[in-house]
Amino acid sequence: MRKEFSFKNAFLFLLLLHIDIPPAAPPRHVQNLQGSSGIRPVPNEILYGKVGSNFTMPGLEQDQHDGVIEWEFSSVEKPLAYIATYYFDSHIGPDVFSAYNKRISFFESNGSFVLHQLQKSDEGIYYRKINLTKKWIIDLKVYEPVSNVLVYPVPGENSSILLHCNFSGDGDFIYWSRDGKSVPDGWKLMNRNQTLQVPSTEACSLFRCEIFSAYEKKSNDFIYKSKRRKSSHNKLPEVQKLRSDGNPSPQERSQCLLVSAQAAGSHSEKV
Question: Where found (predicted)?
Answer without folding.
Answer: Membrane
